[in-house]
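Weekly modeling sync, notes
Attendees: S.R. (lead), two postdocs, one rotation student

Agenda item 3: backlog of single-chain predictions. S.R. asked that every request posted to the team notebook include the full sequence so nobody has to chase files. The rotation student volunteered to paste the first one in as an example of the format we agreed on. Action items at the bottom.

Example entry:
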Amino acid sequence: MKTLILGAGAMGCLYGGLLKERGNDVILVDVSKPQVDEINKNGLALETAEGKRNIKIKAKFAQEVTEQPDLIILFTKTIHSKSALSSLKAIIGPETMVLSLQNGLGNDEVIKEFVPTDRIIIGTTNFPSDLLKPGNVRSLGKGTTKIMSCNGEVTEKLKQVEMMLSDAGFNCIITEDVFVSIWEKVAFNAACNALTAASRLKLGDVGKTDEGKELARSIAREVVSVANARNIHANAENVIKLIELDFVEHAEHMPSMMQDVLGNRTTEIDFINGAVVREAEKLGISVPVTNVLYKLVSMIQKNYENLIK
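Predicted structure, as returned to the notebook:
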């Protein structure tokens, strides 16, 4: 299966690297010249629990891709999804599938502009991954990947994707209702990403404090209350257990939103906490802690040039 990883950041490189290591035909696609150049020159330096190694894998800019892929795995930020897919529009074929393993809500709606519903796969992943510098990625934890066809059908192609990802170590599961996992991940990220971004503290440092734990629990419960109101059977206690486990097991992890704030980049806050706030307003539900974190991170990213160092 010819696969393009669209968005070769920390997660894209982890998935692309391990898929390539298992002999799959994979190309990384990104807009970052330092990232593309480093991977092409020296390979992808990947560190996992199994050790450090260098993986030879092609990295390209979108305009350099000429072959029609069987599968595009979308790992860009949601804010960049439309422009990223537009850059590959010429090589998206009549059989090309698009799999979104992105954070946030509404990714499937963006993808529908490029491929029909029966070729969209939506999913979640909770593998940790950090981009240490161009071409260097570290992932020292395990996780699960859950996927579902956007139209709910379990096709042979969906099974092929499941097998390919599982063979590469991503513990892939086809689920009948991936929206439970998506909302639980949104709850997790609305707490962990936003709290670390606003505080500039690593995950473990947030979790060392009673205040951090209390805020994380409140956000998880607020987000899940919105999901439940939409008849999505997410479970707040499951999210809280995962958050508290990550406070310990991934204590040194710096979530992507925190890395974006540290790098003065636009975050995904509008598609995580912001999306929850907007959905809550439609339903008449109060989510005060989630809303405060949304406004706080939004305020920070609008004032990068004014931050006191």
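Discussion: group reviewed the output briefly. The chain has a mean pLDDT of 95.
Action items: rotation student to repeat for the remaining queue; S.R. to check formatting next week.
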